[in-house]
Amino acid sequence: PYDRPHDILPGIQARFVDAGHLLGSAMVALHLEVGGKEHAITFTGDLGRRGLPILRDPAPIPPGELLISESTYGGHTHPPADSLVDGLEQVVRRTAERGGKVLVPAFSVGRTQTVLYYLHQLLASAATEVFRLHPECFDDETAVLLQDDPDLFGQKRVHYIQSVEESKRLNAVREPCVIIAASGMCESGRILHHLKHNIEDPRATVLIIGFQAPETLGRRLVERRPQVRILNKMLQVRAEVAVMNGFSSHADQQDFLSFLAPLAGQVRAVRLVHGEIDRAQALADSLRAAGFPDVQIPEPGDSFTLE
């Protein structure tokens, strides 16, 4: 449970705070007693965004002597959430007009439900049973929508594929459709088989909606490589590749400043992790300008001494 202290070991207590990133995601606030002194360390983990549908915004970040923060989208501003419907409609419409399929590599929890939420506004939507079971995590807007439409997360135009056989049968579907499948970076899961059967089809679209780590298949597609290896076979990329970073559930530069700036006088040091160096550096520069005295991007083997 959030906001409840948990004794980990003698002298070490942890409190989990809603990170607003995924269902159940949490920041960790550690309280330590070492040598008669008390210390506080906060680790953001993956930090969510403000104003996205379904989940609550991240809770205030607990102050600490040391703050360890992700930096995935430092220096980057996501497009506004209300633009996602229009962008998604354009991708779906032009692909359907070509007679192709839209393939959406997505993480199973979080991103899949967000895409379905927006498709609901175009078609007539869905999400998954785990989301049904946790309405206490929803924001006020989604709670109101559920009162007006109890079937917001499960209507006739969405079909959940349970078996490998069902997934394979999608390859024989000729009419336009949207296929959402894991994994989000195209490194494993059923999305690989759908890509194998559609990547050389100029009617199809691969819609990238999340961060793609270097050297992943997803990153190669974002980089518009002319050929990619899928399931040990080199294939020509003839499908359209569209990128919509607005679906990301990671905080962007404006979110970071909104969440972190109030802590400038309460945190002794900030260490930025989980981000490519240019993203982390952009965020570090902004935090220094906001009044944080010690902001660094740690290298392997670096340490920090609690005083």
Structural account:
The chain has 307 residues and is an alpha/beta fold. It has 2 domains: 121 residues, Metallo-beta-lactamase, Chain A (4-Layer Sandwich); 167 residues, Rossmann fold, CATH 3.40.50. Helices cover 26% and strands 21% of the residues. About 2% of the residues have low confidence.
Question: Largest sheet, if any?
Answer: 7 strands, mixed
Q: Give me the number of helical elements.
A: 9
Rg over alpha carbons: 21 Å
Can you tell me the CATH class of the largest domain?
Answer: Alpha Beta
Strand content: 15-25%
Task: Based on the model shown, name its key terms.
307 residues, alpha/beta, Rossmann fold, 2 domains, four-stranded parallel beta sheet, 26% helix
What is the topology?
Layout: E1 5-9, E2 12-18, E3 26-34, E4 37-43, E5 66-70, H1 84-98, E6 101-105, H2 111-122, H3 129-132, H4 140-148, H5 164-169, E7 177-181, H6 191-198, E8 205-208, H7 217-222, E9 227-230, E10 233-236, E11 240-243, H8 253-260, E12 269-273, H9 277-289, E13 295-296
